[in-house]
Amino acid sequence: MSRLIFSIFIILFVSCHPKKETNKYYPNGALRSKYYLIDEKIEGEMLDYSQNGKLVSKKMFSNGIQDGKTEYYYESGKLMEVQYYTKGERYLSDTLWFENGKIKDIIQFNHGKFNGSFTSYDSIGNIVFNAEFRNDSLIKVIKGLKDIK
Question: How far is residue 9's CA from residue 7's CA, in Å, rounded to a whole number?
């Protein structure tokens, strides 16, 4: 019986907060972005497009705050960057790619700050820079840019 009451409560609660689809447009009429609002806050997936209709980014939101995976794309449609957010702050690692599909950068974050390694590659996959950070401060350079202080 308590499960039935709980289920009814959840259904009523969700129905009181309907999602409102929101579309924004460029002056030329092309779709610029598409997202949903609940209580005037972005909720779920937000899609951004270029003026010629190509997908530029996919972002996840919870209660109006960026939360989850974010993807950015090249005009060609190839993946350019993946970021992760929790409660509006970057965490885990960002990965960026060259348009040829090779990894460009891998950057570790925690609480929105550089924390861990930052590695950059050239377009054929060679490491050109590698350093360690803690709370946005450079700890040591492992390879490249040896004159950083």
Answer: 5
